[in-house]
Amino acid sequence: MVSQTCSPCLRDGILSKAWFIYLNLGMVFLSFTLLVYNLPSKDIHHRYVYNESLLVRPQRLPSGDIKYNIVVVTDLDHLSKNGNHWHSYLKRGFLVMDETATKASVHWSRPDVVLKSDMAAKGRAMELSDLVVFDGQLLSVDDRTGLIYKIMGDQIVPWVFLNDGPGNTTKAFKAEWMTVKDDYLYIGGLGKEWTTASGEYVNDYPMWVKRVSFNGEVVHLNWTHNYKMIRKSLGIGFPAYLIHESCQWSKVHQKWFFLPRRVSEEPYDENKDEFKGSNIVLMASENFANVKKLEIGDRGDGTRGFSAFQFVPNTNDDVIVALKSEEREGRSVASYISVFRISDRTLLMTESRLEGAYKFEGLEFA
Q1: Residue 148 DSSP SS3
Q2: Residue 164 CB partners (closer than 8 Å, separation 6+)
Q3: Do 54 and 310 form a contact (C-beta atoms < 8 A)?
Q4: Where on this chain does Ca(2+) bind (predicted)?
Q5: What is the tens place of the pLDDT at every residue in 103-121?
Q6: Which helix (H) or strand (E) holds 232?
Q7: Which side of the chain, N or C, has fewer Cβ within a 10 Å radius?
Q8: Which of 348, 324, 328 is nearest to 337 (CA)?
Q9: pLDDT at 42 > cutoff 90
Q10: Contact criterion met (CB below 8 Å) for 276 and 257
Q11: Among residues 365, 300, 307, 299, which one has the least CA distance to residue 332?
Q12: Dist CA 284 CA 254 (whole Å)
C-alpha cells in the first residue's frame, strides 16, 4: 500500500515521463514534416535530371515525304549594333526529305525573328555563332561577349559566361561551335593558335574547349593535342592551320565530326584567308587517335566555308544538313545551305543561297 505522502511524487514522475514522450513524438512529427516539405516536387525535379527532350517532331506528309522544322541564326559582326542595342536574326523554315531519302529541299518562313540584347563587350555583341538544343532548350552563344543565351520565342536570356583559354582570363571566349555529348554541352573555338594578322603566334587559347553541365557548371578542357591530331591527319602543322566553326558528336558513330571553315597549308594571312574555304568532312575517334577525311562536292574558288551543320534526325547520322558562308574583303556576302549523305558522299540538295547578304552561323532542328 502506497503512502499518501508519496502520491504527489508518483504523479509528478508519471507526468514527466508523459511530457518526455510527447516532446519526442512531436520532434519526430516535425522532422517528418520538414523532410516531406523539402522533397523536390514534380515541378522542380527537372532541375536535377537532364532533360533529353528534343524540340523537333518530324511530320510525314501525304506524299510520304518527311518534314523537319529548322532554325538558323546570323552573326552580323559590326552590323549587329543598332542604336543602343545589338541584334541578330533568327530565321525559321523546314527541311523536306523525300520518301526514298534521295532528295531534299529547304523552305523558309517570314518574317525573321529579331533577337535583341543590351549586353556588350567593347561595343560588340550578339554575334551568334551556333545553335543547339540542350537540356530541352534552344541555346546560342555570342563569340564577342562569351555569353551562352537561352532563346525563348523572340526573347534571348543570358545563362552562362565563358572566359577565354584555361578560364583564368578576363577576355571572353570566342566560341564558334556547340555540341552535346553524354548530357554535357561542349563549346569550342577556332581550334587554331591565336596569331597576329600576319600569322605570328600569340597563344593557344582558341584550342581550349568548355564543357558545361545542365546546371551551368563550366569545366575548361585543353584540346590543343586533339586539334593538332586533326591537322596531322591532313599533313598540316603550325604555322599552317585549320579553322573550325562547326563540330558535332555522333552517338551513333561514336565519333567527332568536323566540317572545317578553312584549310590552309600556308601561314595565316588575313587577306589570303578568305580563299581557304573547305569542302571536307573530318571524322575523329573519341580519343582523336584516328581521323578520316571525306570530300563533299566542289570547293569552288575557296570563298565558301562551312559555318554550321547538323545530322538529320532518323537517318542514323548518315545525312547532314550544312551551312556555308561567304566573305569577300572582310564583308559577309552570302550564306548557303546544302544536304548530303556521308556513306556515299551524295548531294541530296546542292548549295542553295539564303535570302540576304548575311553570315548564318547556327543551325538546329527546332
Answers
A1: strand
A2: 146, 171, 172, 173, 174, 205, 208
A3: no
A4: 129-130, 176, 245, 307, 361
A5: 999 999 999 999 999 999 9
A6: helix 224-233
A7: N
A8: 324
A9: no
A10: no
A11: 307
A12: 9
Q: Which residue has the cell 534521295?
A: 102
Give me the count of residues in the chain.
Answer: 366
pLDDT digits (tens, 9 = 90+) for 197-243: 999 999 999 999 999 999 999 999 999 999 999 999 999 999 999 99
pLDDT digits (tens, 9 = 90+) for 236-288: 999 999 999 999 999 999 999 999 999 999 999 999 999 999 999 999 999 99
Gap between the Cα atoms of 196 and 179, Å rounded = 28
Amino acid at 258: F
ω into 239 cis (within 30 of 0): yes
- The C-alpha cell that represents 351 in the structure block: 548549295
Omega within 30 of 0 (cis) for the link into 111: yes
What are the residue ranges spanned by the domains of the chain? 4-39, 51-365
User: What CA–CA distance (Å, rounded) separates 19 from 92?
Assistant: 70
Annotated binding-site residues read 129-130, 176, 245, 307, 361
Encoded amino acid at 282, one letter: L
* Backbone CA torsion sign across 142, 148, 152, 156: negative
Sign for the pseudo-dihedral over CA of 149, 151, 154, 158: negative
Cα 245 to Cα 248: distance, rounded to the nearest angstrom: 11
> What is the grid cell recorded at 261?
571553315
The amino acid sitting at 356 is G
Pick out the residues of the known binding site for Ca(2+).
129-130, 176, 245, 307, 361
Helix/strand/coil for 31: helix
Instruction: Report the CATH superfamily, name and number, of domain 51-365.
Output: Apyrase (2.120.10.100)
Contact residues for 25 (Cβ-Cβ < 8 A; gap 6+)? none
